[in-house]
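dumping these here so i dont lose them again. two proteins, back to back, each one seq then structure tokens. dont judge the mess
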Amino acid sequence: MPLPLMAAESGTHLPPELRALDGTFATLTLDAAGRVLRANDHFLRTWGYALAELQGRDFLDISPDSGLSDSPAVIWRDVLRGEPRVVERMRLRRDGAQRWVQASYTPVADAQGVVRQVVEISSDISSRVLKAADDRGQIQAINVSQAVVEFALDGTVLDANARFLDAMGYSLGEVVGRHHRMFVDTAYARSAEYAGFWAALGSGSHHAAEYRRLGKGGREVWLQATYNPIFDPTGRVRKVVKYATDTTLEKLRQAEFQSQIEAIHKSQGVITFGVDGTILDANPNFLATLGYALDEVVGRHHRMLLEPGVAETEAYAQFWQTLRAGKFVSGRHKRIGKDGRALWLQASYNPVYDLNGRLTRIIKFASDVTADVALALAFEDAQRQAQHDAATSLPNRTRLSAFMASALTHPQARLVVLYLDLDRFKPINDTYGHPVGDKVLGEVADRLRRSLKSDQLAARIGGDEFVIAAPNLADEEIDAYCQQVLEAIAEPIRNDVGLLEVGASIGVAVSPADGTTPDELLRAADTALYRAKHSGRNAYCFFANEMNDRVTASRRMIEEMRRGIVAGEFYLDFQPRFDARTQSIRSAEALVRWAHPQRGRIGPDDFIPLAEKSGLILPLGDWVLQTACEAAVQWPEIGVSVNVSPVQFRDGRLVQRVKDVLAGAGLAPERLEIEITEGVLMDDAEGAGLVLRELKAIGVRLAIDDFGTGYASLSSLRSFPFDVIKIDRQFIADIELRDGSRDVVKAILALGKALGLSVTAEGVETDGQLQTLIEDHCAEVQGFLLGRPMTAPKLIEMVEDVESVR
């Protein structure tokens, strides 16, 4: 029955029957069309609305139909017919949050019985609804993932899910109503233990274990299961629910694994060590191989099986360190038996962990391969003798030809061949005889071996002639390598007859220019050797004249550079860096120049690579650093930046040199900025990080130059203490022409902002480039547009002019 609507209270107040609830529950009064007439304070506080925001609105605006058992139209039809309804539904707070409510709808009729208003009284049940959903989800998850079966207290099957039926091979009709004993052996079903199992469940005890059960047809099934008594509200057990996981396959795997372990014990030696290397156990096979009894090894250390002196080596310490780190080790190892006989074991050392992930022991599986090793060594010795020179143990011509052929697999393959002939060897051989001559050849061979990289080969091809084959050796590396070989051979050789001195001449051929087959390259290198011998000995010569000319020119420039550093031919220009908006000068970059007395001004691109290759970059770099800091002391308070070569960075003296120069010049550390290229970070990231942090500790600023063209990444910028990113000029050159370049610049600017780094754009040469950079919020620029490289006095003059204009 609908409640009556009192005429005097029509449209504004609740009927007396509902008025008492108004202060306790959230209440809405709706008209027959579902529009809001009134909301009490409780409702407005709970849902965050003002009354004016609700009046006249359709209440479905804040009460969507999610989760309703009937459609809103059906519910409203029943209420307008005078039937109260109680529903659970969603409600929206003013901030958009969704909550579940239980709402009762009470119709309020006029004197003629027509429903004019509807009163909704609601309470928040979100926590109960969510918990019920969570419980349903958990139950559903268990039914999906596990086998589930329900039993009465007497063991009769009440129900079972599909996973349980699949595991046991039955249909539901074949198990419901039958007793649990259908799944166990007859003997166990009749035992007192089985009766006690069900009695304990009936008393409320929980059981969990791995159980052997019988499926349809007597098939063995293993289940990891829990039997869970279920209680009624009075606390009495009313049924038992079993949750189980089928572990049959795992059980079979364990059985197979155990069979494998037994097979290993029969076929291999097995020994167990503690983490400290103490022997814990050994099987008969292992003991028989080494000739020990079990009590002779248990409790002793693994080192008892080694040759004398091996246990004290760094390699042995590293071996155990690797095992204690939990890493697997395998290989062929030499061990000593009880009788002193050397044995070779093909072995694997396997770390074993407990259930908590803690390393507890190491198990070694080993096979005696002593006979195989002896056979392999004999075969290798025969092979070596066939391809190696007996006097020097270097590869012979046969091995050299095979090596060269493997390096020349395609027409453009690069292979450098050095053909060596010893100088002054024949007089030694004639004077002291062949035994002394052979010792000299052996020493030369050893020195050549020590000069080789892993992919290179040295061979003796007859008499006092040797060949080095070096794949992929770059043009700029050949000169230094030839010098290294000549210097190594020229070192005096100590012998019983005294110090003996020999030298060498070298002919160089390079594929594919000088040949594409082993024979062609050897002939070309032999021809070049002939020229070297006739040019003064203890020298090297290229087969191609242009290579000789290039190497000679490089060597001459290196010598002139060495003289020029001493003579003061080098000087510094300074290129200012500007605030992009105000165009005030912030700092200046030191740029080294060479005023050659004959060739005139030489740019850094022509001499810096040679300086780095020859090592002259170290004295030159020291001079640049000192000269720049001494000049900066004379300036107004602006900074100076100095480029540091990767060679300087790796030298090990850079940090101390910076400290000494700053102290000597009296320059504040924060006014010096050290610039490095991205390649430095890739050569040795760990070492680079250490040097950068030490420089940062001094107080100098650090910049990464030419950013975007090398290898630096976000991770490297985050890992190293840089202050400045310098955007490479190639991106600035294209910033007005190519969208991609501007996008790269904007990305670098955003990266700098995110990491708190200053960003400098290099190579700004046009007004358009400058304006674009200002629009993209670049703080600092450098380039010909605002300032070319200049002398220190002109820089001071420019700074003063800019300051006076401002």
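---- next one ----
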Amino acid sequence: MKISYNWLKQFVQIDKTPQELSLILTNVGLEVESVEKVQPVVGGLEGLVIGEVLTCVQHPNADRLRITTVNVGGKENLQIVCGAPNVGAGQKVVVATVGTTVYPLEGEPFKIKESKIRGELSQGMICAEDEIGLGKSHDGIMILAEDTEVGIRAKDHFKMDDDFVFEIGLTPNRADAASHLGVARDLAAYFRSEYEMPDLSAFKTDNENLVIPVEVEDLAACPRYSSVTISGVTVQESPDWLKDKLKVIGLRPINNVVDITNYVLHGLGQPLHAFDAGKITGGKVIVKKVAEGTPFVTLDDVERKLSADDLMICNAEAPMCIAGVFGGKSSGVDTNTKNIFLESAYFNSVSVRKTSKRHGLKTDASFRFERGTDPEITVTALKYAALLIKELAGGEISSSVSDIYPTHIKPFEFEVSYTNINKLIGANIPSAEIKHIITALGISATNTSDDTLALRVPSFKVDVTRECDITEEVLRIYGYNNIEIPAKVNASLSYSIKPEKENTHNVIADMLTSNGYAEIMCNSLTKSAYSKNLEEAVFILNPLSSDLNVMRQNLLMPALESVAYNQNRKNGDVKFYEFGKTYHLINEQYVERSRLLLLISGAKQSEQWNHNSKSATFYNLKSAVDAIISRLGIASYQSDVLNDENFAYGIKYFRGDKTLVSFGAVSKADRKVADVNAEVFYADFDWATLLDIVKKNKIVNKEISKYPAVRRDLSLLIDQAVTFDTLKGIAFKTDKKLIKEVGVFDVYVGDKLPEGKKSYALNFILQDEEQTLTDKQIDNTMQKLIANLTAQAGAEIRK
């Protein structure tokens, strides 16, 4: 939201610089994101002064040039060569002195230098309108009134003060500050001063020649509707002061009537709409909802199909305007308009928000109505705009103010305690100071006891409904920086349930990051086309688009979009991880599940001079999965081959009926949907289940054994159906005390082996924690191991 420094000064007295004011605004809760200097014309007339032409004679070497002597208020007069046909002695003119940069309407800016023109010295330039951006005329120099003071700055003569625009990051709860009046109200409370409202004393009804009756059929969507008519107006270009006000805050001037409605909107925060009264068929305005699918052409010349829930401003035959959102093409004000029907209403914020979102229309009016406008300011804004229209467009106010407001919106009433306010703030602010701040913000406060205030909160404070809201209001005006940090901070030790989710999360995230994985955070909203089980899909009732109409049921498809995005930008070697949640509707219950995704694609490491780049494989993913399981301290689990439509092939680790992780290659169908060409491997961890297991882990500190470990290798010929996990299990059952580790360091399958067979080369680490192993102990253990592998796995020992 843009706020003008000079415009603010119309509502409240300010003796602070723009930079000082920006800090004050931020401190009172209106965070200033930037401050920009704005000038009414490019260059701001800097360096230009008012001069008087003392003499004017013909140039001896040029028929169209004249040599002038100009007084600019300095110690010496300037000699300036001028080619304007209308220059003459005794004139008051605008002079660009040496060193000034001039910004013409057309062409590039140029700097004035002392020079000789056809042999005669020229020490400046006498300016025409278009040469300094004050008009389009280039017929001759600007000639000012005879009583114009010589030597003053041109910007002072033309009253062109520099302005400053504050870009305020307005939070959704601060609807009361969505205008210059709203910001001024906060500043007045901060400065302990008063703010000024526009003077409406001149408002009166001139005649009753143009009475347009109004009917409101839906009072829930439109609790208040105020209107008035003005006849005999002349729609034309706005005066410079009004155009400058709007340009400063980034608005494009249109005509005097529309500009006035925008001026009042940004000044007072109340949206207005002006209709051409001659286009109101039937001479009647009806506020109602129309049939589903009714076509309506808006001001941007787009035909939209209306919803039966859209509130419309209609004439006797057809809709004219989408209430609180956007005007219609056929009812707006143009240069042929002579009579105006002016609307100032209070619309239900929820109704406007849904309509605005439904049609994808975001306007200055909907921005304010969605957050909540002040129902008590509609007539004030209406009268203010009507007076401005009379002043700038002529005409007469041709009806009394119509104000349909059957059920008045009551202010919030509740009590607050000085003690509670100070307790929440953590400071001892005097009671008188608290009450003064509250009343300065426009809130009525009456003491009911020494410690209690009874409050009536005005309707423009839509977010102030409780004692804690009042505390926030007091604190931001009193000043967060005025709250002293105590010398002593009290704290209590608290027991936290182990494991701490955040710590565990960070441990795994740090490990993955240090191993080259990048964390991604994908949108929880995705497209229903990705869903393989629509019965469990959680649909969005009012989606932003068809691509964001359901909550994700897995982390894979959004992650594949990230892979495609990178691959399309020549970054095909990716290693991603994401902690996220999936969403399901199961037996009419919404279920949210915590997951961890691991994903790799492309080369396992970047190409280097001393080794070739190799593509990542399933086993690169498996090593990362095993590292996570190990880091979490999970030692006992089972594994099995996956039979899952999300995987081309893969493995799962499980305990009982709970799957810890499923990992493998992404199916071609899923890669095709996401437009990913390269092979992708991913792992899907049930993070909630893993945390439940980690809770039961017991941490035992052990000394490093002082007795050495020994290694023995075996080469086995086994059936291809036998897995390494089976062999590993047999080994540990043979001797749990001595056998510490089992590994595989070679696998061979080929034509030199019998059909259906494969060769495994295993290594075994043996160690006794209490003594040094003897050859006899080692041999006994290995013989038992060979016997068990032969009997239980059908293994044949290769020698």
